[in-house]
Amino acid sequence: MLRFNTGLIISRRAREYLGDELLKEIFNLGQLSYLAEYGDYVTNDIIQNNLQSLLIVHEKESEDSKEITNFLRDLDQVTGINPLAVEEIYTEWFQSREQAKALILAYIEKLALSFLTQRVQPVRTKKLSRRSLLRGKLYYYKPYPILYQEINFEREMNYLTSLCPLIMKTPEGPQVSNPEECSTCGFCSGMSFLGYLEIPNFSTDQIVAFINSLVKYAPRDKPSVILISCKKLERIPDANVYVYPLLAPCIASVHDSFLTAIFAAGFYPVIYSPQDECELRDMARLRAETMIKKFPGTNIFFPYVESESELSTVLNSNMENLPRHEIPPDVVFSRSRRRSLLLWSIQEVNKIRKLDGFDKIPGVFKVTVDPNKCVLCGVCVRSCQMLVFNIKNSNDSTNLYYDLSYCIGSQRCIRNCPENAIKLEGYLEVKELGEKLVASSKIVKCRFCGKPLDSFRIKSKVDELLIQMGIADVSNYTDVCNECKQKMLAKKWVEKVIGK
């Protein structure tokens, strides 16, 4: 996989805490293009090394931090690095040198996959000040959702356009019509079933890379928490666990599969959304209400907290040390992306603990097929965008299967079924995951040559329709292959000509 040229800049105190030997190890493990202590020279170094993303490690309040803040303010204009491809880590987050190493490497992996930031267009600054004019800051970058791939999913488009008036349909897929008006809450992306509308600096690929890096390098002597927050934490409360902050543009952009994947990988997801001064608090709370509350089939809940006291309580609760599992990279490169990530999570956890088979999986829909009505015409197979249905033929029978694990509730099969044999019945239960046989019928063969034709149910349905049309002898139509029909017609034509 291609990676961005990523650099690491650290403050003097961060260098003293980490030590040069550990920094050298981080440089090699993270495949960095540049590493240096902050100084006046870093701007030229960034340009010369052609850096595309940058991680900065410093303390929250210090003289160095003030200089770094000023340095970041004009970074995009001076170096060309997109501000959305820049992350900050505070030394106040460090609990140990090993925890710090793992956290830094996780952010490096996340930044190395900042490809979507290149698709973000700058928007004009609405309120111009004297300072912004002197600095030439007429534009800025917003992390509005970006189309991950040019692919059209009807359910994604119809659903996402119903969530926000700024989401419009295009031939490529759902897109933000006017980035200048977008609040960048990311609610549309957080509610996306598959994840084709991604937050550019909080994409599914980046989350998987962040988690997998922690699986490799995070210490394992006690439980660990991935703390998802929309606010830069000044510090981490005293805790009995290792804490790895993961900053999101807004809690509203967090998808269910991110939480299940974190748990399946061996970490506890905790969502922290301080609501004091957040302009997007209503959207964050709305997403929290619709977000998955626990891991399917278990009693492991995913805490959502809004105050530091609540956070401290959660971080000091009893947690078991979970086994670590790396997420296969091809999971999110599949057609189903986030759905595949969710299913991987359930399958992985099911290997180490018995899941409650009757527990429902939010977001995974269940449709039922009436075998008495189904004629195995295959319309559902051709209309389903998620390839839920599949017809397999054997020598003597036609069989209809479905795997509801991938059902996103588009109801295309229901709308197109000519026999009204399909119904939507809420969410799928854990025990219903996997491929199931839905309907079966014997195969009708040509009465002359024995060539397989279609299912007996299709033949019966066509016979019924032909009889309604006034055709008495239907046997010459539905139990004879096309080749034999041509021979029969040719024979009749010859007999007719000879007779004349």
Overview of this protein structure:
The chain is of the alpha/beta class. Helices cover 35% and strands 19% of the residues. It is built from 19 helices and 20 strands. The strands form 7 sheets. It has a 4-stranded parallel sheet, with helices on both faces. Strands 12-11-13-14 form a 4-stranded parallel sheet. The chain has a 4-stranded antiparallel sheet with strand order 16-17-19-20. A hairpin with a 3-residue loop joins strand 16 and strand 17 (397-403). The longest helix has 18 residues, at 482-499.
End-to-end separation? 76 Å
Shape: elongated
The chain-level mean pLDDT equals: 88
Q: Structural class of the helices, strands and pairings?
A: alpha/beta
Q: How do the strands of the widest beta sheet line up side by side? A: 2-1-3-4
Q: Quick one: biggest sheet?
A: 4 strands, parallel
Give a count of the beta strands, DSSP E runs of length 2 or more. Answer: 20
Helix content: 25-40%
- Beta content comes to 15-25%
Number of DSSP helices?
A: 19
> Which stretches of 5+ consecutive residues score pLDDT under 50?
none
Radius of gyration: 29 Å
How would you summarize the topology of this molecule?
Elements (H helix, E strand, L loop, with lengths): L5 E5 L1 H7 L1 H10 L4 E4 L4 H7 L4 E6 L4 H11 L1 H5 L6 E5 L6 H15 L11 E2 L5 H6 L3 E2 L5 E2 L6 H10 L3 E2 L6 E2 L10 H4 L6 E2 L5 H14 L6 E6 L12 E6 L8 H10 L2 E5 L8 H10 L13 E2 L2 H8 L22 H13 L9 E10 L9 H5 L5 E5 L3 E7 L8 H5 L5 E8 L5 E11 L6 E4 H13 L6 H4 L3 H18 L1
Parallel strand pairs: 1-2, 1-3, 3-4, 11-12, 11-13, 13-14
Antiparallel strand pairs: 5-6, 7-10, 8-9, 15-18, 16-17, 17-19, 19-20
